Amino acid sequence: MSILGTRVVRTEDPRLLTAGGTYTDDLRLPELAGALRVTFVRSPVAHAEITGIDAKVALDSPGVVAVLTAADADDLPPAGDRPTTEPLLAADRVRYVGEPVAIVLTEDSYQGEDAAELVSVDYQPLEPVVGMDTALAGTSLLFPGAGSNVVGSGGQPAPDDAFAGCDVVVQRTFPNQRVAPVPLEVRAAAAHWAGGRLTLWASTQNAQQARDQVAGALGLEAPAVRVITPDVGGGFGAKIATDRDTLAVAWAARRLGRPVRWVETRNENLLSMVHGRAQQHTIRIGGSRDGRILAYHLDIVQDCGAYPRFGLFLPTLTQLMASGVYDLPYCGASYQVVVTNTMPISAYRGAGRPEATAAIERAVDLFAAEIGLDPVEVRRRNLVPPELFPYTTPGGAVYDTGEYAAALDKVLTAAGYPELRAEQARRRERGDVVQLGIGVSCYVEITAGDYSGGETSRLVVDGTGAATVYTGSSPHGQGHQTAFAMLVTSELGIPMDRITVRHGDTDEVPRGVGTYGSRSLQLGGSAVHQAAVEVREQARGLAAGLLEASEADLELDVSRGTWQVRGDPDTALSWAAVAGQAGPDGLVADVDFKPASPTFPFGAHVAVAEVDTETGKATLVRHVTVDDAGRVLNPVLAEGQRHGGIAQGVAQALLEEVRYDTDGNPLTGTLADYAAITATELPSFELVEMETPTTVNPLGVKGIGEAGTIGATPAALSAVVDAVTHLGVRHIDMPATPLRVWTAIREARS
Amino acid sequence: MDRDQRGSLVKVMMRVNGAEVSADVEDRMLLVHFLREVTGLTATNVGCDTTSCGACTVLLDGESVKSCTVLAAQADGHDLVTAEGLAGPDGELHPVQRAFRSEHGLQCGFCTPGMVLASVSLLRENPQPTEEQVRMGLEGNLCRCTGYHNIVRAVLAAAEDLAAESGELAPGELASGELASGELAAGEVAR
Amino acid sequence: MIPAPFRYQRASSVDEALALVAEYGDDAKFLAGGHSLLPLMKLRLAQPEVLIDLAPLRELSYIRDAAGHIAIGALTRHHDLEQSTLLAQAVPLLAHAAGQVGDPQIRHRGTLGGSLAHGDPASDLPAVILALDATLVARGPSGQREIAAAGFFQGLFETALEPDELLVEIRVPKPAAVGWSFQKFTKRAIDWAIVGVAVQGSSVALVNMASIPVRAGAVERALASGVGPRDAAAHAAEGTSPVEDINATPEYREHLARILTGRALEEAAGRAG
Question: A-C interface: how many C-beta pairs under 8 angstroms?
Answer without folding.
Answer: 51
